[in-house]
């Protein structure tokens, strides 16, 4: 578990970045802002309340606002009607939109577009602070900004530069607050946002693009709540935060997998799961990426739009691929399609290519090991796979057997036509459509014997053969078997050309 605390800047929406403190714990990231709170005595403001008002045919909402971040004071409702002044009401949210740090005109625009009914989150002041009394009781000769909503212009520049609201406390002076016996105020770090880390999603990239923010990142919780753009002091500091958060997310994921696997039989266990960004193959918006939640479980690779929570969720996957009939590949820097790094691909049994990006190299290595492990476990479990094929217009069957190798037989009589061990395969080629030519070495004559077969699902067969080779190598590696780690790919090679032709070679 990684624990870390540090100061960063937070940009949330259109407002200017402001200082926050991040605190990383085992299962949660806390974002804190500085607040001035009453630590003794009776504070002069009450707690937050939510009220709903409806726009009238004449007079709009019937309220007036003053203040704004450009005046370093909060946005306040100064009047409810022309006839009645009210105690000061600080305006915090409009229809759930945080306006604490908004400029006056920005609040006007939000109110103008709020619809016929608006929900306001406000804080009532029990008595007006001394530094606000003059501003709120003095009517400036200003023209209303929005006749339809009844809002008024910003406060005229009085030369006062006060920071009342705790969100703007950098230059706050305690003398700015009203003096009251027994009341004591302190500047403290208070929780602004809590981001649960389980299934949360990290990204340095501008959403949907390959444009990387060098010093910044954002984190999105499983329920879609985002942190905003967190700006670090340097690229190194940013990477350190990403690595620490990623480590905790990974640890939580592993623990969660153990809990979930208790409810699944051995052949349906989860090997690995997590977020990746999928690159759209055809898009009119440039290099568009969409977050997808991937899971390697039992015999399948699942692709979701959101993490599966219930057993029923597993049945609603967007896509599902058979592990031993797909081929995964880690892309080198020279093979990347754009500016995103840490990418891997998955070629499906239909020959379609899926392209994914993750944030860190450590995540990429996790997926590489997970694909190798899932393939090994599934091949070891099924032991053999048979595909229908055609040889010179005759219906045949090709069995790929984990122990015996390749077996070709007549579909009608079951008579074996030929048999070769995995080590006898010296090469192969295909036409990218349906035909495969195998080159086997005869053990007695040492001559190369060519066998050509035609399949209805070419890529599924090719990927299955590759999976059996990889599993065969893995089971001979004591380190892999003992540690359940990654299978070595050094003794197998597979290359897919741009025309879709796949070549497989086994070396001893």
TrEMBL record:
It is found in: Cytoplasm, Cytoskeleton. Its main location: cytoplasm. The keyword Cytoplasm applies. The keyword Magnesium does not apply. Keywords: Cytoplasm, Cytoskeleton. Residues 50-126 form the PDZ domain. It holds the Pfam family Syntrophin_4th. GO terms for cellular component: cytoskeleton; dystrophin-associated glycoprotein complex. GO terms for molecular function: structural molecule activity. InterPro entries: PDZ, PDZ_sf, PH_domain, Syntrophin, Syntrophin_4th. Residues 269-376 form the PH domain. Belongs to the syntrophin family. This is Syntrophin gamma 1. It comes from Hymenochirus boettgeri.
């Amino acid at each position: 578990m990684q624990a870390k605390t540090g100061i960063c800047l937070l940009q949330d929406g259109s407002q200017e970045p402001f200082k926050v403190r991040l605190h990383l714990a085992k299962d949660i990231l806390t974002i804190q802002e500085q607040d001035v709170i009453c630590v003794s005595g009776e504070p002069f403001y009450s707690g937050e309340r939510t009220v709903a008002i409806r726009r009238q045919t004449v007079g709009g909402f019937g309220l007036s606002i003053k203040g704004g971040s450009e005046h370093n004071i909060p946005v306040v409702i100064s009047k409810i009607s022309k006839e009645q002044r009210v105690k000061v009401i600080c305006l915090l949210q409009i229809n759930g939109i945080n306006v604490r740090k908004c400029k006056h005109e920005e609040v006007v625009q939000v109110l103008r577009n709020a619809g016929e009914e608006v929900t306001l989150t406000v804080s009532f002041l029990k008595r007006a602070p001394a530094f606000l009394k003059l501003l709120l009781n003095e009517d400036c000769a200003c023209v209303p900004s929005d006749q339809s909503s009844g809002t008024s212009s910003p406060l005229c520049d009085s030369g006062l530069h006060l920071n009342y609201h705790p969100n703007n406390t950098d230059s706050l002076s305690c003398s700015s607050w009203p003096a009251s016996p027994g009341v004591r105020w302190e500047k403290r770090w208070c929780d602004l946002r809590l981001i649960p880390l389980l299934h949360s999603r990290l990204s340095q990239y501008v959403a949907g693009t390959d444009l990387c923010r060098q010093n910044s990142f954002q984190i999105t919780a499983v329920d879609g709540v985002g942190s905003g753009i967190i700006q670090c002091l340097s690229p190194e500091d940013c990477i350190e935060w990403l690595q620490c958060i990623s480590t905790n997310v990974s640890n939580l994921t592993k623990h969660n997998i153990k809990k979930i696997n208790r409810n699944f039989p051995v052949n349906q266990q989860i090997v690995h799961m997590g977020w990746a960004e999928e690159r759209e193959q055809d898009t009119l918006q440039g290099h568009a990426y969409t977050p997808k939640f991937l899971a390697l479980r039992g015999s399948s690779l699942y692709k979701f739009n959101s993490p599966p929570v219930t057993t029923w969720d597993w049945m609603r996957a967007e896509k599902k691929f058979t592990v031993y009939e797909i081929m995964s590949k880690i892309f080198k820097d020279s093979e990347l399609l754009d500016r995103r790094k840490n990418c891997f691909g998955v070629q499906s049994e239909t020959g379609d290519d899926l392209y994914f990006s993750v944030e860190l190299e450590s995540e990429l290595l996790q997926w590489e090991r997970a694909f190798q492990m899932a393939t090994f476990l599934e091949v070891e479990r099924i032991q053999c796979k048979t595909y229908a094929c055609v040889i010179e217009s005759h219906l045949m069957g090709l069995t790929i057997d984990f122990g015996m190798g390749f077996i070709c037989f007549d579909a009608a009589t079951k008579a074996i036509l030929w048999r070769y061990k995995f080590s006898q395969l010296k090469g192969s080629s295909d036409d990218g459509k349906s035909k495969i030519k195998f080159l086997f070495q005869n053990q007695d004559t040492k001559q190369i014997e060519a066998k050509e077969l035609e399949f209805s699902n070419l890529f599924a067969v090719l990927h299955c053969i590759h999976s059996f080779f990889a599993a065969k190598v893995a089971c001979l590696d004591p380190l892999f078997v003992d540690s359940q780690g990654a299978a070595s790919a050094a003794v197998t090679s597979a290359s897919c050309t741009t025309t879709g032709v796949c070549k497989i070679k086994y070396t001893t």
